[in-house]
């Protein structure tokens, strides 16, 4: 089975997650979550969401050093969140949202209502139905 998330993660042959989408590995989830945990890296992703930027253009938007921005870009590149293309002497970065979809797949079971919430909704529906029926029965008795 080929992982749904393309890029460097595929080649690692990581153990599959037993509790979620089988194409998403626990190690992959940890890697992507760790990458987006840093506010500078999240800001880089926001910048790249709208356009392709060179490393210099990205670095110019931060008050940290260019080597520090470079390290952040490397982390994002290694987990597959950004890709780079060499154009002349520049490295142009672009967002690759596929790993975020993998993370969203892993998070999805936590966002769904728990089983008991579904049962409470069914109980609520049954209570309303019963009240409606009793109300109809009382109206029939009053008219008879």
TrEMBL record:
Transmembrane segments: none annotated. PROSITE patterns: HTH_ARSR_2 (PS50987). InterPro entries: ArsR-like_HTH (IPR011991), HTH_ArsR_DNA-bd_dom (IPR001845), HTH_MetalResp_TranReg (IPR051081), WH-like_DNA-bd_sf (IPR036388), WH_DNA-bd_sf (IPR036390). CDD domains: HTH_ARSR (cd00090). Keywords: DNA-binding, Transcription, Transcription regulation. GO terms for molecular function: DNA binding; DNA-binding transcription factor activity. It comes from the Bacteria. Residues 21-115 form the HTH arsR-type domain. PANTHER family: TRANSCRIPTIONAL REGULATOR, ARSR FAMILY, TRANSCRIPTIONAL REPRESSOR SDPR. NCBIfam families: HTH_metalloreg. This is HTH arsR-type domain-containing protein. It comes from Saccharothrix espanaensis (strain ATCC 51144 / DSM 44229 / JCM 9112 / NBRC 15066 / NRRL 15764).
């Amino acid at each position: 089975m080929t992982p749904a998330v393309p890029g460097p993660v595929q080649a690692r042959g990581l153990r599959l997650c037993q509790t979620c989408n089988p194409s998403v590995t626990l190690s992959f989830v940890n890697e992507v979550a760790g990458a987006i945990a840093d506010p500078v890296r999240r800001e880089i992703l926001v910048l790249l969401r709208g356009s392709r930027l060179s490393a210099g253009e990205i670095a110019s938007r931060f008050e940290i050093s260019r080597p520090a921005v470079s390290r952040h870009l490397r982390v994002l590149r290694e987990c597959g969140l950004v890709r780079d293309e060499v154009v002349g002497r520049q490295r142009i970065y672009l967002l690759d949202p596929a790993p975020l979809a993998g993370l969203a797949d892993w998070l999805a079971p936590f966002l769904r209502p728990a089983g008991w919430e579904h049962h409470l909704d069914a109980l609520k529906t049954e209570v309303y139905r019963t009240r409606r029926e009793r109300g109809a029965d009382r109206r029939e008795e009053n008219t008879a």
